[in-house]
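Bug report (template v2)

What were you trying to do?
Predict the complex of my protein with tetrahydrodeoxyuridine.

What happened?
Run completed; filing so the output is reviewed.

Input:
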Amino acid sequence: MAKVMELKKIETEVRVFGYDELPAEDRELVDAAKGMTRNSYAPYSKFHVGAAIRMEDGRIVLGANQENAAYPSGTCAERTACFQASALYPGVRMRKIAVAAWTGGEFQGKPISPCGACRQALVEYEKLYGPMEVLLYGREGVYVLPSVSSLLPLTFTEF
Ligand code: THU
């Protein structure tokens, strides 16, 4: 007999804060991500992205997108940051990640959200260490998500 169709709904919780409403610790993380847009190497897209990860011990690990003439060889800010965090501090939980983008002479009004490849990379550390909160900065508001997996439901993790 044919299986009866079942409907599953997946919900993503996004809290939108004004920058000033964030706790000081989170403003510091967002500021670090904004500052890192200046370290982006983006001569091709001119889209400068910064990321900052708050580690379990409180330290902040930074990243910025790094492009390349052979386009796919470049890397996003989020992967630069999480790979650096894991390489420098293996085994230390990444508690939060903040992301900001600068283009056309200003920060983006609407937050940008990590690409699929970055979500996949980040979620692996989340599976190892526990939820990593996501703070996506925009001039019009900061989106706060409880975890990377909430951005990547039905995640492929292992086989
Ligand atoms: N990029 C990031 O660094 N993070 C994102 O979340 C989206 C896109 C970079 C990749 C590329 O260097 C440029 O932004 C344009 O896509």
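What did the reviewer find?
The CA atoms of residues 98 and 135 lie 5 Å apart. The mean pLDDT is 96.
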